[in-house]
């Protein structure tokens, strides 16, 4: 399992080993000892699974506030996404900065997003399935969102390729400047 840091502190790309033969493949997609060895000492308590019927489905930017903040480990089991993490820790030198990573079945990679980051993704293919582990349970009282197209953040979504499909909640999300974030 290869675990490499990305440009924002605490965000990692993880690429599990994949063993293939005529029967198919085997892959250990998560190993707590390997993660801890790379500084990711996280206990996951819930797995989530989403399916998006068409490309252009945009989910996010989502997060939960303390004390129910969540670390996330995101992988794709069918299709491809552009996954985005935005630093929303006010005390961070990278506050408001974002990173994007294509996560796909073809790349067989994952992204680890720590607490203090808003998370979102857009599907790049039809019939995309995303599975992700989280370190705390869903808490509606603590969940928040930020506009995916906030000009202050300036995420470069692949909008020229297709039209986005968002939930009503995501369409009404506040801008970063008026959102409740991490201190």
Description:
It is a single chain. By secondary structure, this protein is mainly beta. Helices cover 5% and strands 40% of the residues. It has two helices and 13 strands. It has helices at 32-37, 168-171; strands at residues 2-5, 12-15, 18-21, 24-27, 46-52, 58-64, 72-78, 80-87, 98-104, 110-113, 117-123, 128-134, 143-145. The strands form three sheets. A six-stranded antiparallel β-sheet has the order 1-2-10-7-12-5, with no helix packed on it. A five-stranded antiparallel β-sheet has the order 9-8-11-6-13, with no helix packed on it. It is globular. It starts with a strand and ends in a 12-residue tail after the last helix.
Largest sheet: 6 strands, antiparallel
Shape: globular
What is the percent of helical residues?
under 10%
Q: Please write the string of helix (H) and strand (E) elements.
A: EEEEHEEEEEEEEEH
Low-confidence stretches: none
Strand content: 35-45%
Radius of gyration: 16 Å
Alpha-beta classification: mainly beta
Q: Widest sheet: strand order? A: 1-2-10-7-12-5
Cα distance, first to last residue? 33 Å
SSE blueprint and pairings:
Blueprint: E1 2-5, E2 12-15, E3 18-21, E4 24-27, H1 32-37, E5 46-52, E6 58-64, E7 72-78, E8 80-87, E9 98-104, E10 110-113, E11 117-123, E12 128-134, E13 143-145, H2 168-171
Antiparallel strand pairs: 1-2, 2-10, 3-4, 5-12, 6-11, 6-13, 7-10, 7-12, 8-9, 8-11
